[in-house]
Amino acid sequence: MRVALVGCGTIAPTHARALAALPDDVELVACSDVVPERADAFAAAFGTTARPYADVLADPDVDAVSVCTPSGRHAEVGVPALLAGKHVVVEKPMDVTEEACDALLAAQRSSGARLAVVSQHRFDDGTRRLREVLDSGALGRLVAADCRVPWFRTQEYYDAEDWRGTWALDGGGALMNQGIHTVDLLLAACGPAVSVEGRIATVAHAIEVEDLATASVVFADGTLATLMASTATAPGLPARLALHGTEGSVVLEGDRITLLALRGQDAVHGLPTADAVQVATGGTRSAERAVTDGSVATAWGEAHRRQLLDFARSVREGRAPVVDGEAGRAAVGLVRAVYRSAREGTRITL
Which spans of this chain does the record mark as coiled coil (predicted)? Predict the structure, then answer.
């Protein structure tokens, strides 16, 4: 699979290094940017060729496009690539409106190409083991969830790129940009959301969008959740997802499981998740499962590598990627519903 990377900004080097770490049958063959000098510098740094995007679209030897542009330009770049028969992986969020996400989905269906949305924390060791706990049924029926992203960003962070902190290209603030990862994990754990009531505020930055958001969410199966995301909460704490069921609770914090507590058993704090799963299921810990320690955060870049590997395999195997366009659209839809609720002062039905 020959990949072209479009948008040579902050996240692009992570994609380039992840692609370089994949098997030899995946290759970064081109890059493109609206600022030619930035593309030239990126090409020199990563051993590829800078090309205009029109040339990338017209080249039959380019099989896939990795979209790393500002969020509000994901569909603008991804739709033509899909319609040209390229497979596409877009950085989070999928785009900044439901309409743009729907345009990507329509192009994907029309072309038959593969479409993936980066949500690399799905591929963290802790998240994978959390999925095992959920699938084991050890928590009983899920009844409540608590999702928190108490992060911190300086004003300089927003000032560094003119698109950051704007509705047009960032699509929102702490919830759309930073919180979207944990929103995706919440949806993956709890299923589709059916209603939301939210509030947003800008309390610490000179930006158009929010640096603080809160919401209450109701899911189709009756699970209730609370949600908070911020870039104004100094000094910044790890993102946290707590899931509570009729038989137990599990906490994922900073990409690692920090607690598994089951009714009638001693709570397990900060152990390798293989052990946590053994406690939860009453099974036998295997040597293979013991290799991964879900109590340690996955190294930066490794989860991107795993997701891009899944993307490449989805192309090869003719299947949907783990995080497909529908999942990306669901996360954007929930965030946008929070914003709409905040504007209208009412609960929104999804």
Answer: none
